[in-house]
Structures are given as C-alpha cells and as structure tokens.
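Entry for zinc ion complex. Fields follow.
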Amino acid sequence: MKILGIETSCDETALALVEIKGNDFMILKNFVYSQIPIHRKYGGIVPEVAARAHVEKIPQLLKRLGRRKGEDIGVIAVVNGPGLITSLRVGVELAKTLCFAWQKPLVAINHIEAHIFSNWLTPAREVKSQKSPPEADAPRAQKVKSILFPALCLVASGGHTELILMKKIGEYKKLGQTLDDAAGEAFDKVAKFLNMGFPGGPAIAECAARGRADAIDFPRPLLDRDNFDFSFSGLKTAVLYELKKNKSKIKNKKYINDVCASFQEAVIDTLVGKTIKAAKKHNVKTILLAGGVSANAWLRKEMALAIKKFVPKVNLVKPELKYCTDNAAMVAAAAHHHAKKRDFTDWEKIDVDAGLSLG
Ligand code: KG4
Ligand code: ZN
C-alpha cells in the first residue's frame, strides 16, 4: 500500500509518499519545506505568515511528487489537528481536492498520532526498484525494532508535551500533559531571552553541551507530584529571574553555557522522571520518544540511562533525528492502521480542529 502523507499543521510544509510492506515503512518521497528562515525574524511562528507560506509552497511540492493522476497512490492522509487553524486548512483543502480529482480514500490524522508513528519509519529501506530514485537521504536499512505493547510514548514538541499509553496500535490513553508551556516552547522562550534565535532547542542544546548542568539549581516542576502532568512556565520564569539577577554576566559565554545546561537538565529530569514513573505504574514493555524535543541528544542519552537503571526490561525506541520534527512521512505511517481498518473520512465532511486531542 502506498500512502501520500500531507502535513501543514504548523510551520513545515510537507508531503511524503510511503510504501508499507509487512513491517517495512519505505519512504519513497519525503519533502519538507521548513519555514524557519521566514519566521526567524519575528522570533516565533506568525500564523498568518505560516498559512500563506504553505499556500505558496504546496503546489511546488506536489509537482515534485510527480504523480499527475494519483497513479500508484492508494490512500491520502492529512493532519487535521491539532495545530494552527489556517495552516491546517491548507493541507486539508489539498487533500480534499486530490481525493475528489483522483478518487482516492482519505484518512484524517491527529498530529500527535503522526509523531508517535515517526518511530515506525526507522526500519525503512532504500528502494532501488523505483523508477524515480528515492530521496538521497532516505534512511538506510536498519534492524527492525520490536515495539511491544503496552507502550508508553513521550511526545515532546513545540506545541505539546504528553505521555500517551498505547495498549496496542490505535488505542491511546493520555496519562498526562503540560498544564502550560510545552517543553519545546520553553526551549524557544529561553532562547529568546538569550537572543539565540528561533527555534531555540538546537541552539540551547549546543551551548548546553559546553556548560555545567549542576551550575544552577533550577526547579523540576511537578516532578514530585503523583500525576503525569508537566509544567514548564515556572522554570522558564526562573531562568528569566536568574538572568536579571546576573546582568553583568550576560556576555560571559561560560555563564550562558551553564544557564543553558542547567535549564536543559531541569527539563530533561522532569521528562525522564515522569516517563519512568508512568512506565513502572503501567508495566509497559516499550518507551517511545517523539516530537521535536526528542531530537535532543541529552534527552535521548538520559532516557536510555534511566531505563537501564529503573526499568531495564523496557525497550527504548527513538525516531531517527530527521523524523523527530514535523514531516509527512510520519503522517503516512500513522495512516496505515486506519487504512487497514478502512477507517476513512468522507472528503466532503473532513474538518480541521486546532485543539484536537489524542486519547
Ligand atoms: O515537533 P516539532 O517540529 O513541531 C511541533 O509539533 O511543535 O517541534 C519543534 C520544537 C521546537 O520547539 C524546537 O525548539 C524543539 O522542537 N527542538 C528541540 C531540539 N530540536 C528541536 N528542543 C530541544 N533540543 C533539540 N535538539
Ligand atoms: Zn509536531
């Protein structure tokens, strides 16, 4: 089955064609147009600008896809929420048009579910037999990782921080979520205080790698609470106070590296602590990471160490770095089990929902 994935929920315009054969999710085409350079000058995403950029870019990506009549595409999958309403509309309108013109079935995908399925892309192989060659950077053949259930997924991105329990594919229960800022949002805001540009995650991580994580004792919000919710807004404010208190050191690179490392450590301690607690309580067999923040090298390392120490039988599965942030291959991957169950949406009835929830 070949599935066309469409993703325009935030600031990445993305189209992908994924072929699913048994356990293999082969990425035949994967186009991601990142709007980061456009939004950088505003220090964050401007919704109206994002939607306009999607409208301008999506016909170009469609042309690159090279399927004028839908040819070998079996199913069209599109994210219809959560996200920015005007951005979501662009992808959904394209999906509707293609479904009408090509007479293909439509699967509506929740963006959070799509992130979870970035983990299924790992074993994708390069496809040599395709007429048009696969993307040059298509993932190489890898050992198929076993994703045993129940599984627990930590989805940490710019818009979300959630712990989702998966009893099996397609069955989700949200155990907890952020009560205010998402983890990625906290990275972005702290980077803004430090004039490090947008998005903040990679810039903070780079400075943090040169700093001391124990230099400043930032709070670990809600870590000691008996629930699986998160809160990062107080931590962000604590960083702001720390910087205001030490204005004279702001030009000192070593001090800034220490602030970044200590802040990053506080975020990661919280994410890892809550994930391990939930993994124990629900006796999970697999922990999955997903979302832009899961690209963070320190998080990936700390999670692996904590699993080894506290729940050694649990298998850790992480998406490849390029599939942590928004892309359409993960959308196509998530659509597979819906398509198998013929869980299709009428293209005339699909709607967008900025606040769509999973589980
Ligand atoms: O999943 P994503 O592309 O978009 C949303 O669905 O929100 O995630 C983007 C977020 C941004 O907040 C960005 O700062 C963060 O992921 N991010 C990182 C790293 N790379 C991206 N955060 C921490 N460390 C990173 N290496
Ligand atoms: Zn996302």
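NOTE: The chain has two domains: 2-121+322-340, 151-318.
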